[in-house]
Amino acid sequence: MSRLFRQRAVTSLFSLLGLIVLVFFLSRLTGDPTSLFLPIDATDAMRENFRELHGLNDPLLLQFWHYIVDLTHLDFGESIRKARPAIDVVIEAFGWTFQLAIMTMALVAFCAIVLGSIAAFRVGGKFDRLVSLVSLIGASAPDFWIAIVAIVIFSINIGWLPTSGTGSIAHWILPIAVLFIRPFGLILQVVRGSMISALGSAYVKTAKAKGVKNTPIIFVHTLRNAMLPVITVMGDQAAALLNGAVVVETIFGFPGVGKLMIDSILQRDFNVILAAIMVTALAIFIMNLLIDVAYLFLDPRIRY
Amino acid sequence: MTDHLLEVRNLSVRFHTAAGIVDAVRNVSWHLDRGETLAILGESGSGKSVSASAIMNLIDIPPGEITSGEILFDGNDLLQQTAEERRQVNGKRIAMIFQDPLSHLNPVYPVGWQIAETMRVHGKDPAEANARALDLVRRVGLPNPQQALEKYPHQFSGGQRQRIMIAMALALKPDILIADEPTTALDVTVQAEVLALLEELQAETGMGLLLITHDLGVVAETADRVVVMNRGEIVETGPASEVYHNPRDPYTRRLIAAAPGKGEMRDGNSQGKPLLEMKGVEKAFGSFQALKGVDLTVFPGETVAIVGESGSGKSTLVKTLVRLIEPTAGQATWNGRDLFAMSLKEMRPVRRDIQMVFQDPTQSLNPRMTIFEVISEAWRIHKDVVPRAQWRTRVAELLTQVGLLPDHARRYPHQFSGGQRQRIAIARALALEPKLIVCDEAVSALDVSIQAQVIALLDRLRRDLGIAFIFIAHDLPVVRDFADHVLVMQSGAVVEKGTTREIFENPKSLYTKTLLASGLDPDPEVQAKRRAERKELVDA
Question: What transmembrane ranges does the database entry give (chain A) (predicted)?
């Protein structure tokens, strides 16, 4: 187990390093933040001063060297836009995204697993066909469109829910609902497929011959066996949510990592972009580790 | 009403499949009494398992449909009862065990939990169920019962898993135990132990035992009465010994005649220079010694059988022969050349000379290739065997040679039966005009009558084409009719070798003797004698 952790940590560290190099130089190709932050009538001296202050005058490689050296002291640099340490800005936004992702995924997992399992038990039945149709629509619906339509209906026409921002429980409902649809559709399909094949297993026949009731056959005997592929897909979907749902967060004015990224890219707030990438990478690393632990827990035949 | 413990009357079951309606069983009637063992004997597709599935409510409806009949148990027709009523019968009054216990046990729960579950679902208190599970595990003879309860199915051997299945089935002392091919996947000595255990438990509880099997030996060993099925119908029924000695139905007669182990034995006829000589071959996987210095000699045109139970190293040995596995020590000469010193390039013509036929023809034939492609594929690599213009005629010849039709070349593997697929695999092996064919359990998965045909085919090829065979098997009677020499292996070492007659008539090592005594003879009287011999050996 600890060997697995070390292996994963080493490989992840290398890919993270590659990512940092790539993002560091690519983001600087977008241009100089000075022209965005200073007023149009700023003097050359003011511009020079700004560049000097943020270390933008050094040669690119030297800037990178400084960045890496600071990073080893866990100094992620300042956010130009917020005039605060970049890491603080990112962690604040990540907190919001994290809550959103956890709540959405919990809901997705529960609904997809229960409905998918029941659908699989009677393949081709009315319930199965209804659930399959709904999940197919869900898996293929564009979320930006659903978000806008949902705002029009629930916020503007009926006026039940706020259009954007945070502050009350009501503010969470629409973002969660919109983010829910696609992973729900996708994971339900995986649960259903995996359950159909697991229900055809020989050990299900044994359970029936023992006189086990249908509900435990589905949820005790079969589900645990069918969960391995499901967990893999759930991990992918959760990773996508942790990365920040850029479109949905932007539409709902939700102060998460996705929105922060977009804003920082548009304003060339380089340090924030890099810090955001590192924080989400760490979150995804931890989540993958949790998935491996879940595998171990679910299937006694797996040993790392 | 009925006086029998269980009675099936005029049962007909059909399946609605994509290919049309299949009548799996038609008008099947039989009965089982307390303390009795009834065997249903039949080959694959005979419908022998269908009535058992109907009893256990395991037939999926649809696509299945029970079109007529009654299953009388305890004065009730099971087929008229509700799903809930039948669930209460399952596991408590009638229990079932299956072939291949590994896939029939849930891989993710400890076996103790699974055994106790039978009792919990029928209302036993969990603590009491756990205590009884321990007793059961002890009774069926698992080592370290207390620890065994916490282990998972994959941590046991095949025979132990079947013992676990038996413990699970007998937890609530059912009136009837249905055993569907319970020993088919097991080694002969393990098979004998499991059957002995079933018999003991039957004597203890007085349950009725319904045994479904394709194996005449299992019938001879266990059954009081036998029902013979063919193509969904009962062709004959009666006391086991009477049916064996005086079969009335032509199908039963054919089945009994096909049972291997009755032909003339060979004394070996090694001539000329040896084709293959292996000396002191060793193979270690880490600290595990899979082969411990094995010698093997094969002469042109002769058959050497390698017999041993799972884990004896027989497959590892032949894999070193074609260098699919590199040996850790030892020598081998092929046609006078050092086999283990050859480079990969030098190996190529040797691989052409040594062909393999595997156990499962379904898995060893690519389902997306036509038979023509399957057979001609090797000619793309070994270009000098057959010129491309003659591929079609040569494939047709090969198919005729193995008893198929030239027309079959256009079809795909799934359009053939198991026996036909094995013929195709043999035709593919013949395509390269080999000097030696290695058959790795090549007939083990086939029905008895098909097995006899395939062996007759191999024997004819040996005589006509002078091909030598290495024939790996766990089944002794098959080897008896076909081999010139026999090599008996146990845990990576050769325990005995000799001509077929020497091995069968005068076995020297205790292991060979046990192996021979564990094999089941289709004749109930012979089998009774053999059982006594085995008991002596085990006690010794």
Answer: 98-121, 133-160, 172-191, 270-298
Secondary structure E strands in B59-165: 64-73, 76-77, 94-97
**Which residue reads 């026949």 in tokens?**
A205
Taking domain B276-521, whether its CATH number is 3.40.190.10 is answered by: no
User: Cα dihedral sign for A231, A235, A241, A242?
Assistant: positive
Q: Give DSSP secondary structure letters for B138-154.
A: HHTT-SSHHHHTTS-GG
What is the per-residue pLDDT across B251-285, written as a single tens digit (0 to 9) for each?
Answer: 999 888 887 777 777 777 777 788 999 999 999 98
> Using the beta-carbon criterion (under 8 Å), do B121 and A203 form an inter-chain contact?
no
* Residue ranges matching CATH 3.40.50.300 in chain B: 33-56+86-258, 276-521
Q: Do A211 and B121 touch (CB under 8 A)?
A: yes
**Shortest CB distance from A210 goes to which of B57, B91, B100?**
B91
Tell whether the model's pLDDT for residue B444 goes beyond 80.
no
Helix, strand, coil % (nearest 5) of chain A?
75, 0, 20
Answer whether B424's CB lies under 8 Å from B451's CB: no
What is the total residue count of chain A?
Answer: 304
Which candidate in A203, A210, A218 is best for mutational testing of the B interface (most B CBs within 10 A)?
A210
Tell me how crowded residue A180 is: count the other CB atoms within 10 A of its CB: 19
CB burial of residue A42 (10 Å; 0-12, 13-18, 19+): middle
Instruction: In whole angstroms, give the CA distance from residue B278 to residue B332.
Output: 4
Q: Nearest C-alpha of chain A: how many angstroms from B75?
A: 20
In chain A, where are the structural domains located?
2-86, 87-298
pLDDT in tens, B287-317: 888 899 899 999 988 999 999 888 888 888 9
Which residues are within 8 A (CB) of B395 and not within 5 positions of it... i.e. 6 or more apart?
B371, B372, B375, B376, B406, B409, B427, B431
Query: In terms of CATH architecture, what is A87-298?
Result: Orthogonal Bundle (1.10)
Say if domain B33-56+86-258 classifies as CATH 3.40.50.300: yes
Of the partner residues B87, B88, B104, the one whose CB lies closest to the CB of residue A203 = B104
For residue A265, pLDDT beyond 60: yes
Distance CA A212, CA A208 (A): 6
The Cα–Cα gap between B276 and B495 comes to 20
Cross-chain Cβ contact B104/A205 below 8 Å: yes
pLDDT of B1 above 60 = no
Tell me how close the Cα of A123 comes to any Cα of chain B, in angstroms.
11
List, for residues B337-387, the tens digit of each pLDDT value.
888 888 888 888 888 899 988 887 778 888 899 999 999 998 988 888 888
For residue range A17-41, list pLDDT tens digits in order. Answer: 898 899 888 888 888 888 788 888 8
Which residues in chain B touch residue A211, judged by CB atoms under 8 angstroms apart?
87-92, 118, 121-122
Which residues make Cβ contacts (< 8 Å) with residue B194, sequence separation at least 6?
B159, B162, B163, B166, B182, B183, B186
Q: How confident is the model at residue B107 (pLDDT cuts 50, 70, 90)?
A: very high
Q: Are B197 and B166 in contact (CB under 8 A)?
A: yes
Strands B176-180 and B94-97, bridge-based pairing = parallel
CA-to-CA distance for B281 and B289, rounded, in angstroms? 11
Identity of the residue in B58, B100, B152 whose CB atom sits nearest the CB atom of A209: B58
pLDDT (average), residues A130-139: 88
pLDDT at B185: 75
A194 vs A229: CA distance, rounded Å: 7
Chains A and B form CB pairs within 8 A to the count of 69
Q: For the beta carbon of residue B394, count every other beta carbon within 10 angstroms.
A: 16
Please report residues of A whose CB lies closer than 8 A to that of B88: 211
User: What is the interface pTM, i.e. ipTM, of the complex?
Assistant: 0.79
Interface membership of A163 toward B (CB under 8 Å): no
